[in-house]
Amino acid sequence: MTERTLSLIKPDGVKRDLIGEILRFYEKEGLKVVALKMLRLSKEEAKRFYIVHKERPFYEELTDYMSSGPIVALVLEGENAIAKCRQIMGATDPAEAEEGTIRKTFALSKGENTVHGSDSPEAAAQEIAFFFSDLEILAR
User: Fold this and answer.
1) pTM for this model (two decimals)
2) Which of 6, 63, 65, 99 is most buried, judging by how many CB atoms fall within 10 Å of its CB?
3) Which residues of the chain carry a pLDDT beneath 70?
């Protein structure tokens, strides 16, 4: 099933000039970039985006980090894009991530893990709408 998902290249990935390398991970696995932009979230925007984690102990640290520098937001499209994106990213903790995944290759720590990806169709729809209007997503 063809679907769309959101991925974010987090501040540590942008700061270390990994944008192109990360895009290549997705593209070589058959995911198409159908929208892309660089932006900087305010603390309040980061809090709104990660509201599902509000009660978790890492919420403040996460939202501080996500508003600490530029990020790249992208919409990926392809067969089973959500699961495929998550597989390509690897486990949240890079120490537990499989070899050849983005996080095993590039993440600095569990907190600075370089990328975010939607975890369900519902989350993907909500997260894509947070960053992109319909006009910004192009069919390929």
Assistant:
1) 0.96
2) 6
3) none
Tell me which fold the domain 2-134 belongs to.
Answer: Alpha-Beta Plaits (3.30.70)
The 3-state DSSP class for residue 95 equals coil
Q: Are 102 and 115 in contact (CB under 8 A)?
A: yes
Asked if 53 is an active-site residue, the reply is no
Q: Name residues whose C-beta falls within 8 Å of residue 11's C-beta, 6 or more positions apart in sequence.
A: 65, 66, 68, 69, 70, 71, 112
At residue 96, the pLDDT reads 97
CB 76 within 8 A of CB 4: yes
**Interior angle at CA 115, CA 68 and CA 106, nearest 5:** 100
Measured torsion, CA atoms of residues 57, 60, 62, 67, in degrees rounded to the nearest 10: 180
